[in-house]
Amino acid sequence: MSAERQPLPVPAPKITTTNAAFWEATARGEFTLQRCAACDLVIWFPRRTCPQCWTEGIESFAASGRGTVYSFTVVRKGSGAYRDAAPFVVAYVELAEGPRVLTNIVGCDPADVTVGMAVEVEWHDTGEGNAVYRFRPAAG
Ligand SMILES: [Zn+2]
Question: pTM value?
Answer without folding.
Answer: 0.93
